[in-house]
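so my prof wants the structure for this chain in the tokens format not the other one, which i didnt know existed until like an hour ago. anyway here's the sequence
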Amino acid sequence: MFENFETHSVPVPGATIHARTGGRGEPLLLLHGFPQTHAMWHRLGPALAADHRVVVADLRGYGDSTAHGDDFSFRAMAADMVAVMRHLGHESFHVVAHDRGARTAHRMTLDFPDAVHSVALLDILPSPTVWELMDDWLATRYYHWLFLAQPAPMPQLLISGEPLTFLHSALGGLGGTPGSLDMFDPEALAAYEAAAQNPSVVAAWCADYAAAAGMDRQHDDADRGTSRDIPALLLWGENGVVGAQTDPLEAWRPWLPRITGRSLPTGHFMVEERPDEVLAEIRRHLAGTTRL
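here's what i got, hopefully its the right format
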């Protein structure tokens, strides 16, 4: 996995970020989501490294990254990744990101507008839209948004009692086929399982979602009406949640006016379910944003 990629451990304020780098060309940052690690990019990362300098990183507290404080807001995670990219010599870069990583990427466009040259967001709606749509139907499917945000130590203790049961339920449920893990490469799944059995990772999951229900909402409310005129791609799974209640492109257009995209015949974990189709869409997006 990630053959010929170098491994880095980058200290940033409040965390130490684990990252891998490979390839040559314009810098491209790949970010994962919950409950995964950078291993989700095991196919796309090396493929994109054919013509980009690819950086794959674990969010603070996730995977092999560690947190040294209690700030798990998307603002903190966005600052982490900008610091990592600057440490590696990249002042501006493209971002392709899924789930929590995509929310981190959106926060980067707001807090570091000169750093993000283009962005591709995979299977998310804007966070304020999710909260506005949170009815009984969505809460049943996004129950982890509410459960993980409960005060410590309740969710941490419950998850740590059966971490693999929780992980497999999250992967199968969000993937659109409850109980099925067939789409996940065994080596990648092993990485997710190892992370889920680490109490500090479980604590990071919970702190991430607690921030999403608290300070992140404050940050998003303060930035309503702020848009970034950069090339943006949105992909979402037609068998998932994102497009079921609203038009995802219309939801994103106030934030990213140049956004384009479409649904793919997948659930939430589209990178692992249909990697070739996702790769083709990302390559088209990046080809249209190349800097001369």
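also thought this was worth mentioning. Residues 199-213 form the longest helix (15 residues).
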